[in-house]
């Protein structure tokens, strides 16, 4: 029997039992839809997260207190107060870290702000530099839409000045003018010198829900810290990133009298390190969810095998008649095998279309409802895998029913009631 004739015969058999065929492929459709949806949203989440992490520039290096966690048990083994003023002065020395363009200490915490009868819980970010102006803007690529950042002089003299994020301003002042007004932060009065535009997430910081103050002022009057939560260092060139990381590590180790790197009480991360770590995590999570969704494909395959066995039994006379007029065992096997493959192939295509539609709809909802930049990503690799797997399931689970049909004796088949 020619290939095209086998296909036509299989299509005729499926068309004669349209309702059963539609129900048969339901498991495949659900499985492929789930896989495409998960892979697409996983890629979208990865793109979104990596975009936020890389938002502070590829030349940015973060120095973080504590030992770098490598497993759940490591999170308790930290030294959150290991970065001190001495370390800041040492890495700010050009002789120690010659390729550092900007060095910005950071402290942060959550506190309550109040203006008149309005109060709001926000994140206080203490940052800046006591030698250079606009370091915050240069590092985070964010600048006030009204007013300006506090100056290096403000940082050095512990001035009580603040820059409000867009959401904080709206919560406390609404449509009123905020610039020049005074707010209380942890019972200390601050003068507002700048208002940030709507910016959203940059790296791990949501600038809309944040108030920025000089780090010296935050340490003294707001957070009560004598240490730092981060040093953010910017290398002058990308090719100097590795050298800058090494210089920072050697300088702080010398301050802390550390000779064995395994005993570091701090760690250094570049944007590439963070991006790679998150890429691994999101890929692993996506793979896990896909494996869970693939269970429905297996269930769908078992369903197809059961339905095909029922079909073989119901069409026993048809099989006997075809054999009586010359169809071989191979012809019968090919026909029923094609029926299974066509069913799963159609289910795979429908699942891909539905998965892409739901993924696109989800990306629109996430963008509009959460007001985030969520990019729809069509998973071409996932589509190819999904289609291949669905056809493979048809082949694997269709072989047994097809062989059962092919082995039927034509005389017995014609006598079957």
What does this molecule look like?
The protein is built from 14 helices and twelve strands. The protein is an alpha+beta fold and 417 residues long. The protein has two domains: 3-52 and 276-415, no CATH class; 80-264, no CATH class. A six-stranded mixed barrel has the order 2-3-10-5-7-6. The protein is elongated, with a radius of gyration of 32 Å.
Write the layout of secondary structure elements.
Blueprint: H1 3-16, H2 18-24, H3 26-53, E1 60-65, H4 85-92, E2 100-115, E3 118-127, H5 135-140, E4 146-147, H6 152-156, E5 161-164, H7 166-173, E6 182-185, E7 188-195, E8 201-202, E9 205-206, E10 210-214, H8 215-222, E11 230-235, H9 241-255, E12 266-270, H10 271-314, H11 316-324, H12 329-369, H13 380-406, H14 410-415
Q: Could you provide a short overview of the structure?
A:
The chain is an alpha+beta fold and 417 residues long.
Key terms for this structure?
417 residues; alpha+beta; 2 domains; six-stranded mixed barrel; two-stranded antiparallel ribbon; 14 helices; 12 strands; elongated
Q: Which structural class should the secondary elements be placed in?
A: alpha+beta
Q: Quick one: biggest sheet?
A: 6 strands, mixed, barrel
Instruction: Give the oligomer, counting copies of the same chain as homo and different chains as hetero.
Output: single chain
In which range does the helix fraction lie? 40-55%
Number of strands: 12
Distance between the termini: 28 Å
Shape: elongated
Taking strands numbered 1, 2, ... along the chain, how are they ordered across the largest sheet? Answer: 2-3-10-5-7-6
Integer count of domains? 2
Topology order in helix (H) and strand (E) letters? HHHEHEEHEHEHEEEEEHEHEHHHHH
Ranges where pLDDT stays below 50 over 5 or more residues in a row are none
């Amino acid at each position: 029997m020619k290939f095209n004739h086998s296909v036509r015969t299989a299509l005729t058999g499926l068309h004669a039992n349209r309702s059963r065929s539609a129900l048969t492929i339901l498991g495949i459709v659900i499985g492929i839809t789930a896989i495409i949806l998960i892979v697409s949203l996983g890629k979208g989440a990865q793109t979104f997260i990596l975009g936020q992490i890389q938002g502070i520039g590829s030349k940015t290096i973060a120095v973080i207190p504590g030992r770098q966690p490598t497993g759940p048990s490591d999170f308790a083994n930290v030294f959150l107060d290991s970065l001190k003023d001495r370390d800041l002065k040492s890495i700010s020395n050009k002789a120690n870290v010659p390729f550092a363009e900007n060095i910005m200490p950071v402290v942060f915490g959550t506190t309550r702000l109040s203006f008149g009868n309005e109060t709001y819980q926000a994140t206080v970010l203490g940052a800046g530099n006591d030698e250079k102006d606009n370091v915050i803007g240069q590092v985070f690529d964010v600048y006030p839409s009204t007013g300006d950042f506090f100056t290096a002089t403000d940082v050095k003299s512990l001035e009580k000045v603040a820059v409000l994020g867009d959401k904080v301003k709206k919560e406390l002042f609404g449509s009123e003018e905020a610039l020049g007004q005074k707010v209380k932060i942890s019972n200390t009065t601050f003068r507002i010198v700048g208002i940030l535009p709507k910016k959203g997430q940059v790296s791990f910081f949501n600038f809309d829900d944040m108030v920025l103050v000089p780090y010296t002022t935050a340490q003294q009057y707001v957070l009560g810290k004598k240490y730092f939560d981060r040093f953010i260092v910017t290398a002058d060139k990308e090719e100097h990133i590795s050298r800058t990381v090494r210089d920072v590590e050697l300088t702080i180790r010398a301050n802390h009298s550390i000779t064995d790197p395994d005993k570091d009480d701090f760690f250094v991360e570049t944007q590439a390190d963070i991006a790679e770590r998150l890429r691994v995590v999101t890929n692993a999570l996506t793979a896990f969810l896909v494996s869970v969704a693939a269970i429905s494909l297996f269930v769908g395959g078992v369903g197809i095998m059961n339905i095909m066995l029922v079909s073989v039994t119901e069409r026993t006379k048809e099989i006997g008649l075809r054999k009586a007029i010359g169809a071989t065992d191979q012809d019968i096997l090919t026909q029923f095998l094609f029926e299974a493959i066509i069913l799963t192939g159609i289910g795979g295509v429908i699942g891909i279309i539905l998965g892409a539609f739901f993924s696109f709809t989800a990306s629109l909802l996430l963008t509009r409802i959460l007001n985030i930049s969520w990019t729809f990503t069509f998973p071409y690799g996932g589509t190819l895998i999904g289609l291949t797997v669905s056809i493979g399931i048809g082949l694997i689970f269709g072989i047994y029913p097809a062989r059962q049909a092919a082995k039927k004796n034509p005389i017995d088949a014609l006598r079957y009631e």
